[in-house]
């Protein structure tokens, strides 16, 4: 092409910044590895640890005894179901309050958003441990913890979807003289409802995964079996429970994916 | 004829069915968990009571116990876990992607990803702790292995979404498979995959904080021991420090992710798209 | 010399893209292939370098059989056949020079190219290719920062870097504006004349075909329906190839139709 002069350009030197970033990443990784106690020799040695034999054979008759695994497992599902229902229903009004599209006023927006960000920054099992201390060991505390955490996750996902919704139906409803709440429910809600259902299913999936491990901090569900058996060094039973958990997570994920596909 | 039935009523029936299942599930759960009105009404005041006692937070005391070290240990664990996940998952993802890998090799590798992904980090740490002993290495290993599963899945999906054109070009030049991957696919997907790595790092920071609660290193152990002795001002301080750590990592990593992604496709907010992708809800 | 002997291509799903094609192209020819979309133009080019396997017949490039060749043999055949694409098929997120160096992949050991340790003589070759298409100035620019016409020139340079004996161009100007289209076609023509590279170009603009071609091949539903000197081609020939009358959409510019 005529506008380009046909002379070879000088090869640009690699940027100093690239070197600095690369050097920082390498140094940080090596430093972290040392702090964490990683070394290739420990990595290889650990596979020949004789303790692995304690994981085998799995005592299936113990696993399939109703009181040992099935009951705690049902409790896990109950925690997940109730906390998904509580979390997702509370999330509905709060999401509309903190979406920039539908918020009733600025102070509500900022305060709610800040609170939700802080709630989400505390990991789910921290919530569980705190509530176990506050209201006693068991599934009740676990349900509270997961309700709070799934509320925060749901609000984040759903409010961002509302942010991206088409603002024109809302404008139309307002132009017709509608008050705030009815305008939102007729103008925005129908367009974002399918996303809400899909997120709810996703949150349910998260809650199943979380409720499995809640028991490790005393908040009920199948995790308490794992915790108790590892205290007794019965790693064979731990492995058995783990295999059950593994199958359940796989099945739940498949079902959830299939349902979401149908709904969206 | 089945095909001529409009889909809408069927959809409606599905929704009613779902609603009925939800209601039944709720009743079953409430009964099973022995939720009584008294417990329900008492819980908020109990929770408030504890929250109240956390103020003012005792930063001095937890600092003396080395909480800063613990917080950084959580970050190191998350970082090492992410690096292990990234390094192991990247080559495997190429072998798992439909468009570049034959069926007999991609199916088993996907199964490995699925298996690894289905085991929560905490459970994995429970297995590793007797082998490695209590400490951060159990946490790093658990997070690393779990990350291989998630990062591998996200990476092969990114590879499958890539444009075939450059691969065809490399093929037409007589390039080998490794060249097709290195020059046809890698430059296309690297920004997306790097941002996935960072996103996973953000998740792993939370996970490593939690891992401390069962003795796999990091800030979680401090929370547990303070709660055990009901030192609520100290608990408050640990919580605030944890929140600060999580938010700082999220903010920094998010900034880098946005920079990486902004170069590739200016049309959409890829960041949000990535979040949605990562949460498993693929809208495209 | 390229020889197609009774070549058929059937895609999975049963679509027949080529039916019993016989064709011989001598060294240094400039062949333009026309036909409606779906007539098998792309398949013809891709069967020649094995990107699409022929299901029947025999294709030889300088006496080497393409049909049924092993992966290694195919790579060897492809290393001497350059190809340029309708959508350019550049890697957008890397430099122009890296894109052109991909043409050297078959000449460089895989471990070197994988780590970007290209030998100096291959870098030189890539630079010369860029000079030939007049875009060497942009060697260290990211490919995504170039215009469509410039990107196609990089595509040509990549093919040239292979030191090809044959150049295949699959609708090289379909994504370009009229002026750029002519520039790219002129480049291809010059390369054919200067270096004697056998060139096969798919086009759907008939006026461009007439302007740049020497020999014209017409395909219709996978069969060869015309093969002859461009000088003998009339509007009726095109109508016969297309099976319908010629419209303005078949022409790059409407003015050329009147001259």
Describe this structure in words.
The complex is a heterotrimer of chains A (264), B (284) and C (259). Chain A is mostly helical and 264 residues long. Chain A folds into two domains: 16-48, no CATH class; 57-263, MetI-like fold. Chain A is 75% helix and 0% strand. Chain A has helices spanning 16-36, 40-45, 60-63, 66-98, 106-121, 124-135, 139-163, 168-175, 180-187, 189-214, 223-231, 235-263. In chain A, helix 4 packs parallel to helix 7 and helix 8 crosses helix 9. The mean pLDDT of chain A is 84. Chain B has a single domain, classed as MetI-like fold, CATH 1.10.3720.10. Chain B has twelve helices and no strands. The longest helix of chain B has 35 residues, at 177-211. The model of chain C has no long low-confidence stretch (mean pLDDT 90). In chain C, a hairpin with a 2-residue loop joins strand 9 and strand 10 (223-229). The longest helix of chain C is centred in the last third of the chain and has 18 residues, at 178-195. Chain C has a single domain (29-55, 77-258), classed as Rossmann fold (3-Layer(aba) Sandwich). Chain C has a six-stranded mixed beta sheet with strand order 6-7-8-3-9-10, sandwiched between helices. Chain C contains ten helices and ten strands. Chain C is 35% helix and 22% strand. Chain C is an alpha/beta fold and 259 residues long. At the A-B interface, helix 1, helix 4, helix 5, helix 6 and helix 7 of A face helix 1, helix 2, helix 4, helix 5 and helix 6 of B.
């Amino acid at each position: 092409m005529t506008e380009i002069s046909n002379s070879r350009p000088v090869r640009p030197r690699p940027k100093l910044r690239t070197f600095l970033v690369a050097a920082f990443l390498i140094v940080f990784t090596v430093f972290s590895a040392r702090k964490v106690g990683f070394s290739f020799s420990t990595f290889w040695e650990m596979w020949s640890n004789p303790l692995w034999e304690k994981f085998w054979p799995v005592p299936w008759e113990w696993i399939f005894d109703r009181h040992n695994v099935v009951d705690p497992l049902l409790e896990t599902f109950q925690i997940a179901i109730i906390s998904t229902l509580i979390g997702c229903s509370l999330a509905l009004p709060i999401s509309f309050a903190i979406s920039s599209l539908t918020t009733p006023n600025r102070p509500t927006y900022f305060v709610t958003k800040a609170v939700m960000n802080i709630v989400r920054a505390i990991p789910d099992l921290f919530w569980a441990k705190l509530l176990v201390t506050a209201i006693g060991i068991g599934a009740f505390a676990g349900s509270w913890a997961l309700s709070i955490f799934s509320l925060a996750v749901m609000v984040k996902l759903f409010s961002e979807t509302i942010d991206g919704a088409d603002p024109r139906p809302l404008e139309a409803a307002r132009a017709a003289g509608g008050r705030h709440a009815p305008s939102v429910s007729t103008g925005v809600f129908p367009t974002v409802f399918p996303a809400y259902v899909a997120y709810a299913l996703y949150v349910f999936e998260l809650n199943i995964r979380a409720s499995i491990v809640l028991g490790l901090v005393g908040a009920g569900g199948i995790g308490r079996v794992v915790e108790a058996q590892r205290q007794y060094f019965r790693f064979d039973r731990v492995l058995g429970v783990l295999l059950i958990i593994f199958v359940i997570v796989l099945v739940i994920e498949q079902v959830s994916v299939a349902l979401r596909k149908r709904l969206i | 004829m089945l095909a001529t039935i409009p889909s809408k009523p069927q959809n409606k029936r599905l929704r009613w069915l779902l609603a009925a299942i939800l209601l039944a599930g709720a009743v079953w759960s409430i009964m099973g968990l022995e939720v009584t009105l008294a417990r329900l009404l008492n819980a908020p005041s109990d929770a408030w009571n504890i929250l109240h006692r956390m103020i003012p937070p005792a930063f001095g005391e937890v600092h003396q116990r080395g909480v800063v070290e613990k917080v950084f240990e959580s970050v190191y664990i998350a970082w090492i876990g992410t690096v292990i996940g990234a390094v192991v998952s990247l080559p495997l993802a190429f072998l798992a992607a439909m468009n570049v890998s034959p069926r007999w090799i991609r199916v088993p590798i996907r199964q490995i990803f699925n298996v690894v992904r289905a085991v929560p980090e905490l459970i994995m740490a429970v297995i590793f702790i007797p082998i490695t002993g209590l400490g951060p290495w159990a946490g790093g290993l658990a997070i690393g292995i779990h990350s291989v599963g998630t990062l591998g899945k996200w990476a092969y999906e990114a590879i499958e979404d890539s444009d075939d054109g450059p691969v065809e070009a490399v093929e037409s030049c007589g390039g080998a498979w490794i060249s097709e991957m290195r020059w046809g696919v890698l430059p296309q997907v690297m920004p997306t995959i790097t941002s996935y790595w960072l996103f996973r790092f953000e998740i792993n920071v939370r996970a490593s904080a939690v891992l401390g609660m069962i003795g796999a290193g990091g800030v979680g152990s401090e929370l547990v021991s303070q709660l055990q002795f009901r030192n609520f001002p100290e608990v408050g301080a640990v919580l605030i420090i944890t929140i600060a750590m999580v938010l700082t990592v999220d903010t920094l990593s998010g900034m880098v992710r946005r920079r990486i992604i902004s170069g590739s496709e200016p049309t959409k907010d890829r960041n949000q798209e990535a979040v949605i992708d990562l949460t498993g809800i693929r809208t495209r | 010399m390229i020889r197609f002997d009774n070549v058929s291509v059937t895609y999975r799903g049963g679509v027949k893209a080529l039916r019993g094609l016989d064709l011989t192209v001598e060294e240094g020819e400039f062949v333009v292939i026309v036909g409606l979309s779906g007539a098998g133009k792309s398949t013809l080019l891709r069967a020649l370098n094995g990107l699409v396997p022929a299901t029947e017949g025999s294709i030889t490039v300088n006496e080497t059989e393409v049909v049924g060749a092993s992966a290694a043999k195919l790579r060897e055949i492809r290393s001497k056949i350059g190809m340029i694409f309708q959508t350019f098929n550049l890697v957008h997120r890397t430099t122009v020079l890296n894109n052109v160096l991909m043409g050297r992949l078959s000449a460089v050991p895989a471990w070197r190219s994988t780590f970007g340790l290209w030998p100096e003589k291959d870098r030189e070759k890539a630079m010369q290719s860029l000079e030939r298409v007049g875009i060497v100035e942009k060697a260290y620019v990211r490919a995504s920062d170039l215009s469509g016409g410039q990107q196609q020139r990089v595509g040509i340079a990549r093919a040239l870097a292979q030191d090809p004996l044959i150049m295949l161009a699959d609708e090289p100007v379909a994504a370009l504006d009229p002026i750029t289209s002519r520039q790219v076609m002129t480049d291809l023509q010059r390369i054919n004349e200067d270096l004697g590279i056998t060139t096969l170009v798919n086009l759907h603009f008939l006026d461009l075909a007439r302007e740049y071609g020497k020999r014209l091949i017409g395909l219709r539903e996978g069969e060869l329906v015309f093969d002859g000197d461009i000088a003998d081609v009339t509007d009726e020939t095109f109508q016969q190839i297309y099976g319908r009358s010629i419209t303005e959409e078949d022409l790059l510019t409407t003015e050329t139709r009147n001259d």
